[in-house]
Specification:
about 350 residues, alpha/beta, 12 strands, about 35% helix, about 20% strand, elongated
Length: about 350
């Protein structure tokens, strides 16, 4: 699971020696702007004096003290069942409103907001169009905090402690979303990274108990048996970058699992089909869906699985409808329809 305290302590510009002569505020984020707990409230960071050895020893002591306080705050039970990262940034902006020109906001977060204008519970996690729509929605809702003059770092994007980890393409999409949201706040610089240190939970201890949180889930590999045919569905965002047919690095583990499952089924016939959403036109949909099916067919062949056929159906066979509601795109439905299916027919 993500070690948020270690992630923050390791952040560039947050080391105690780099904050000397300034002020430090540290908060545990309870899910909304109103539930931010400033456990360290504008504490002055006194410069360490003395020889190099003394400076090093006192600097290390300050670092340990900071990490201990961060761990105490991150171990707290959230006050709500919501996660609003924009709310955390707004609270930080309020806290820094009286600070000087050098202001830095560092937030350790998986980025999986489940409320407000950036609610990702119905996200498709694929495509620039959805990112643009989310930023514009937040702009119109007035939920973008004013971060002019502040350096902003969001660390740990995509590193949720629950559920299946996102693919590299899904993480890249989430990183791009928060980069654009950060830029829209007017921040002087935006660092958005998936990197987060990890640690094993202590023996006998699970995740912190608290209010059940409405989870944001990524499109994942699924299986559907029906009679003699078992259909393995691989979401497009797990296998490919947006509008591409080249398999992404993260696709390899999903294809390894698919090949293992096909062998377990002892297939008589294996058929691969590619599917797209309704955007991009019929010709492009046919080309892309077929190219993706053929890419998966080749990948399975490299794993010793003989595929009898590969077809591209564009958007002719949607499984999630409608893709538009009241004229607005349903990005989750579109993501559901962008997929490659492996139909495995077994002997009776």
């Amino acid at each position: 699971m993500p070690d948020w305290a270690a992630t923050l302590v390791a952040a560039e510009g947050l080391a105690p020696q780099e904050l000397e002569g300034g002020f430090l505020s540290v908060a545990g984020f309870g899910g909304t702007r109103a539930t931010v707990d400033w456990g360290v409230d504008q504490v002055s960071v006194t410069p360490v004096k003395g020889n190099d050895t003394l400076k090093k020893d006192r600097g290390s002591a300050q670092r340990r003290c900071l990490e201990k306080r961060l761990r105490e705050l991150s171990a707290g039970v959230p006050g709500t069942d919501r996660t609003d990262v924009l709310g955390a940034l707004a609270a930080a902006a309020d806290q820094l409103s009286s600070a000087g020109s050098d202001r830095k906001i560092v937030v350790a977060t998986d980025g999986l907001t489940n409320t407000g204008c950036a609610d990702l519970r119905s996200a498709g996690f694929d495509g620039a169009e959805e990112i643009r729509a989310t930023v514009e929605r937040c702009r119109k809702a007035g939920e973008l905090p004013d971060l002019k003059g502040s350096e902003v770092a969001l660390l740990g994007i995509g590193r949720s402690p629950r559920g299946e980890a996102p693919s590299s393409s899904q993480t890249a999409w989430l990183t791009a979303l928060w980069t654009q949201l950060c830029k829209a706040t007017g921040a002087s610089s935006c660092e958005v990274a998936a990197t987060a240190r990890s640690r094993e939970p202590e023996v006998g201890k699970g995740t912190t108990a608290g209010t059940a949180e409405p989870q944001v889930t990524y499109p994942t590999v699924s299986e559907r048996p029906k009679g003699r045919v078992t259909t393995i569905t691989l979401p497009g965002s797990v296998l490919f970058d947006t509008d591409r047919a080249e398999l992404s690095p993260a696709a390899q583990s999903a294809l390894d699992r698919a090949a293992l499952r096909i062998r377990e089924l002892d297939p008589l016939v294996v058929a691969v089909s590619g599917h797209t959403d309704s955007r991009g036109g019929e010709r492009r949909g046919r080309q892309l869906s077929l190219a993706r099916a053929q890419a998966v067919r080749s990948a399975l062949a490299g794993r010793g699985i003989a595929v009898d056929s590969a077809h591209g159906y564009s958007d002719d066979r949607p499984i999630c409808t409608p893709e538009y509601r009241d004229g607005a795109p349903d990005y989750a439905a579109m993501a559901c329809n962008r997929r490659v299916e492996i139909a495995v027919t077994v002997r009776r």
